[in-house]
């Protein structure tokens, strides 16, 4: 039997390595383990239970919640019946869910707990097609008596009875599955409009999984911590597709708050996180160093300078002088090894980041302490697998050459075009959008601007629609500049402006943890984010960060003119609930420019301050207002310097 669908891959692993761990979950402080054989039994029970409730081939199944074994099994259960799983972001508010529920015509939903059940109940009047809601965790639901609510225990028991009475039913359904059937529908983040349902086939995701597993030599003995949203293409590739292809173990943390503790306990060999997670980890490290003794701080900074000088080269097995090699070995014993252990990265053999560009300095930091961090380039429409960085050929400013079996070319306007089996089958109910994205030659238009360097490695500059020009004609790439600013632990988010302008200006969000710790150590009293953000001492701290970023930009021949001239610190954190960020925390640049137009005018109008009042949404649905007089500060810029040799 050809292993060309995920239910067939699951059956293969249940036969080939039935007693090996397939998935773990930490519950009440204890790790629970299911083998591949047990996982297949759970999936078969859930699939037949769904069939008993009326789930049929072609139906779409919404899946909402944190990473849980039964939610991953729900993916395969839907596929067994010829249905399509549609994972949704668990932190989306009820109103945000309506569009996907309506657009995908969801009749069945499997959710994690009472919180998600309540969101769906709130939307029932606007989603009359929703017929059944199944829940994993029954806590708090004892007195919910709606006839369409079902516990997964109950549904799986129905499925086991169904399997005993109809032993051939499920195998017959699985046999009907084809490689070109839609395996999953993932909705885009919607940075520029309504999200679109990306239909990806079994063939596409299995091809992407095979490519990655062979490229990095992933084996059944590997294991990964699965904590990123199941609705994100990165999690679907790394935690679902690759685990089902290679047969390695998925580990689900107890909660989002215990990820770091659970990671240290598991010690994954394979790790994946977007740049913001690596940024947050580095911020936590720097906060801890602020609280360390003077001797520890001195040791840390001394050996981090050694690591910056030669750590990445040692990791890539490049020639390094004997003195530096000896110092690095000492640093590994005193600093790098303990630091990797604190981060839960002691056993990591390969780590990836994707979803947004990662700053070269941040990238270098992790590689310099011995973490084999690599960049992956792709999108929801390409199964997140377009370019991969080979070991020993890592560049800090590229995403590597095209992955095996993927064709990449650069259009005349600089846009990156992709062709291969990893492409989407189409956008759900949007043939117009599909035709617009895939040209007559079969190339998908990514919307990213980039070019190939002399070694055939792709360098992404920015989103093509975001790349512009300053008034003097110099290139302006906002995301590139923002990543320079976000390298500093005190900067959580940055949004820069400059297209068509004489100079670049920026909005800054401070990192409350890092800056709050810094302020407390200096006895600077504050009442909350808004108060802290407008302290003159904090402005001086951020001014120093911006000027250091400008000094770095001065060495970039293409973007030296894009140094930041003026900035302000926003009075509130940019938030997905306020529509300023997507659920994957990408900046909705156009929306922000419109919402905070008065601040942009003040930045370019030469004002020293600007009053603003902004409406905010709270987690419980209430609305409020935040207001402040925002200071606007000018910063030092530097003359363009000769380009430094690429790392």
Task: Tell me briefly what this model is.
With 647 residues, this protein is α/β, with parallel strands linked by helices. It contains 21 helices and 27 strands. The chain has a five-stranded parallel sheet, with helices on both faces.
Which spans of ≥5 residues are poorly predicted at pLDDT below 50? 643-647
Quick one: how many beta strands?
27
Structural class based on helices, strands and sheet pairing? alpha/beta
Give the oligomeric state.
single chain
| Order of strands in the sheet with most strands | 4-3-5-6-7
The fold-level CATH name of one domain is GMP Synthetase, Chain A, domain 3
Can you describe what's shown?
The protein has 647 residues and is of the alpha/beta class. The chain has a domain at 468-634: ANL, C-terminal domain (GMP Synthetase, Chain A, domain 3). It has 21 helices and 27 strands. It has a 5-stranded parallel beta sheet with strand order 4-3-5-6-7, sandwiched between helices. It has a 5-stranded mixed beta sheet with strand order 23-24-25-27-26, with helices on both faces. A hairpin with a 4-residue loop joins strand 16 and strand 17 (415-419). Helix 2 crosses helix 3 (69-80), helix 12 crosses helix 13 and helix 12 packs across helix 14. The model is unreliable at 643-647 (pLDDT under 50).
